[in-house]
Amino acid sequence: MSGSDQEKGADVLDAQDRARFEQLVLPHLDAAFNLARWLLRSRADSEDVAQEAMLRAYRFFRGFHGGDARAWLLQIVRNTCYTWLEKNRPVELMTEFDEELHPQPSTSPEALAIAGDNRERLTRALETLPPRFREVLVLRELEGCSYKEIAAITAIPIGTVMSALARARQRLQRALTHASPQEASREL
Amino acid sequence: MSCELTRTVLHGYLDGELDATGAAEFERHLESCRECATALGAEESLRSLLQRSGLYENAPVALRKKIRADLDAATASSAARGIPAWRWLAAAAALLIVATVSWFAWPRVQNSAASAPFTAAEIIDAHVRSLQPGHLTDVASTDQHTVKPWFDGKLAFAPPVKDYADEGFPLVGGRLDVLAGQNVAALVYSRRKHLINVFVLPTKEADTPIHPPGARQGYQWVHWRHQGMEYCAISDVSASDLHELAQLIYQ
Q1: Which domains does chain B have, with CATH numbers?
Q2: Quick one: how many helices (H) and strands (E) in chain A?
Q3: Total-model pTM
């Protein structure tokens, strides 16, 4: 289903649709914005993309036949974000997702706690990850999505959500602990 | 050297996505695998960092407003926003015509603003249905002292039942019916060879006089409210006969 095909099938919505949309979908606007913000790494762009995604969701609301409204909306938000990235930052999407997961000695919980005990540093570390790693972490840790929901939103087969999360977490740990020495010294 | 599970099952365990058996197995494994125990500690630490660092960003208020405006614009009924006042008047006039036409095409049972809780079509349907073989009465009796007690316990109200044989409207019987989703009592009277249904249901509305009769498809009906009861009498008898029965019941 391409975006233009979808546009053609858009419905004319009435006050009843509007009320139902307000009740089921609009409450997930924060989730929509948060996902866009972490995928695009910019609040201003996220506002535009979240607005566009919400309107698109509304236009195709009659295609929503109940179930998980948040996952349904986030799927649309994610697609809108990727379309935006393809157009504006194509390089960012070229990172391989299926890179080999190299065994590496685990960081100790204490070292990690110190390295990440700073919102700015944590934000930067998360933002250095490729979008496909970032999104599973945001969906799991910030949005609290189940594997099933993550699979529905990201179109990753459910059987590989676990390993995608494993890789994303390893990348984040590495980003935190590798960045921290210089960061720490600069802050001192 | 390195345990395979740190990169697989450990995450399912951390996320609460293993089934009971899988989780118990991994817990047994944790007791003997230092690497997994350390890795789990690190992952829990990472999770708590992510969750308590205030990384979640809520939608700005301005965005919420913009989206509501978008939704208004994309909703059919509000497509008329921003249209000059004379257009509104024209739209209102058109609406009035439609409403008036519908009013005559599909009348409520009475012609007043405080209309009955059912339409003429529903009343006619109920009347025609009662004329089908075996549908007219649940209790067939000309004796009001048989018909009235029959309703006891079947309805949440006690409809007044009286025989008007002396006035030319003998009681035929009674039955339970449903009108517009409400349980009602139906009293059946006859007038010469014609049958009259009188539907009775409780109401909280004020009393009304007997309204002028309505007519459709060869049937006449009259409607009124009296002492907490809503009445509608319908039949193919003449409007004056119907009015006569209504007056008898009203007294």
Answers
A1: 4-52 (no CATH), 61-104 (no CATH), 116-250 (3.30.200.100)
A2: 10, 0
A3: 0.57
